[in-house]
């Protein structure tokens, strides 16, 4: 994959792992002027709500009744968020369509690899620890992506 698409692919991977974390990342990136799309909410209320939704998703994911991320509605949301995020994080001179495809590809990969890393059901104690690891990885990747946008001047 071309280097200029890594942020788009990366936000897609985050989306596959934690879709609300990716949405929160986009609102924070927009508020910092690091996104390309103008329609992403950047106000304090949007950032607060998106961050709260990300934290709620992380907590809810540990519950035994949490749905599988691979069911069609969940997967469609992840593809959509991956596409929007991928388009938003493309640099000038790169087609937002390319970014959207990279974001969707990352979302598929993040969905399946994240689930595989969890090792099966959400009912076991060891899965809970893996879920926390996935939370940390998604949050860390998100922070890295946003900071890399600033350093590289991609937007």
Unreliable parts: none
N-C termini distance: 19 Å
Tell me roughly what share of residues is in helical segments: over 70%
Q: Briefly note the structural class of the backbone.
A: mainly alpha
Q: Output the helix-strand order.
A: HHHHHH
Form type: globular
Rg from alpha-carbon coordinates? 15 Å
Assess the beta-strand content as a share of residues. under 5%
Q: Outline the biggest β-sheet.
A: none
Number of domains: 1
Organism: Roseicella aquatilis
Protein name: DUF4126 domain-containing protein
How would you characterize this protein structure?
The chain is mainly alpha-helical and 155 residues long. The chain has one domain. It is 71% helix and 0% strand. The chain has six helices and no strands. It has helices spanning 6-17, 19-31, 44-60, 72-88, 96-118, 125-152. The radius of gyration is 15 Å and the shape is globular.
SSE map:
Blueprint: H1 6-17, H2 19-31, H3 44-60, H4 72-88, H5 96-118, H6 125-152
Produce a short descriptive summary:
With about 160 residues, the chain is mostly helical. Helix content is about 70%, strand content about 0%.
Give structural attributes.
about 160 residues, mainly alpha, 6 helices
């Amino acid at each position: 994959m071309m280097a200029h698409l890594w942020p788009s692919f990366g936000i897609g991977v985050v989306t596959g792992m934690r879709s609300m974390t990716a949405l929160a990342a986009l609102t924070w990136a927009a508020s910092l002027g690091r996104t390309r799309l103008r329609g992403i909410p950047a106000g304090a209320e949007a950032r607060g709500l998106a961050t709260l939704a990300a934290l709620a998703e992380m907590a809810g994911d540990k519950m035994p009744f949490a749905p599988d991320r691979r069911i069609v509605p969940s997967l469609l949301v992840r593809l959509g968020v991956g596409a929007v995020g991928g388009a938003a994080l493309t640099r000038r001179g790169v087609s937002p369509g390319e970014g959207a495809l990279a974001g969707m590809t990352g979302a598929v990969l993040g969905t399946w690899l994240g689930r595989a890393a969890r090792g099966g059901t959400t009912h076991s104690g060891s899965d809970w620890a893996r879920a926390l690891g996935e939370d940390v990885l998604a949050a860390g990747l998100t922070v890295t992506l946003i900071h890399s946008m600033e350093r590289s001047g991609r937007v």
